[in-house]
Amino acid sequence: MIGVQSIVGVTLLLSSAFAAPQRQNGQTAQQRAMKIPQGVSAATDGSMILDTTVNINGLPIRYKVSGPAAMFKAASQVPGAQAGPDAQSAMGVNVLLHGDGGQSFFDFPNQAVQKNLMGVAVLAPDPNLFWGGGQGLQRTDGVAHAQAVNDLMKNELPKVMAFNQSQVYFMGVSGGSLMMSGFFLPAQMKNFPGTGILLSCGGMAPQVPFQDADNVMRNTKIHYQTTVNELTSLQGSIPQAIASNEKLAMTAGLTPQQIGAMQTVDNTPAGGHCAFDEQSFVSGVQLLANGYSNIMQPGASGQVQGINAPTVLTTVVGNENPTFGPEARQKRSVETL
């Protein structure tokens, strides 16, 4: 089998954040993505990447998982797989949900093992590759997509990978952050206690009833990372997400100090949408993925190389409304698969 990294001359799908759904040559983004072969390839740190698809609740869920070959199980067909069919391991995972159009799925910026977290990226089961379906702030399939991500991690990934199922962290990018904050956090995060979600360049208040809110607020690290020149629509929805989750934490009985330890926010970078390096979408997302452990994992310093701040871990208490400037869209070409 071959992986994306070994393909020459295949360009990847790009689309602007919240762009209108596009067809090229009569095909949807999902149909074009299907042309990119799946299989096994090498990660940037020498780990192995498995790119495969499973059917979950009637949805085609394509995902990538990266880790040492020994962590894979025989069912993965990864060369060097050694883990037994029921094995777990001490290594956790960081699950990334891409932005509209799928760019970060194909880039797989979290593929390198980072402080004992292996990388997972999941492709939205939507014709336009929008997490939650719909468009903009209207994510009409958010409930179904959130359930599919939960079921992937609980039921399907353990069939091919040995990992610590108590150490499942998440990272959303743009539209992926909308689905995570609007649907996954309130409906599914109760199933992943003691971990956290990094909501990058996106966020909105819960769109469905919050399940087991008190325990989720006590046990979930939430970090909001944005930029000064964020998209105008997100300049409104991100503060709403911050305020909603802070209020839930207060209702759960957390003190301001406890809230500040669990819920943090930063918008230091003077860049456009997702340009955390103040340069571009792709490099900005990669920078943030590189700094994931310094933001999300226990003992994190909050220092992210490339972000000019002593720490990005600023409490949300008193900082519910980040200071934004005029919207600046990053240049992103639209290519065909």
From TrEMBL:
It comes from the Eukaryota. InterPro entries: AB_hydrolase_fold (IPR029058). Residues 1-19 form the signal peptide. SUPFAM superfamilies: alpha/beta-Hydrolases. Keywords: Signal. This is Cyclin-like f-box protein. The lineage of its organism: Eukaryota, Fungi, Dikarya, Ascomycota, Pezizomycotina.
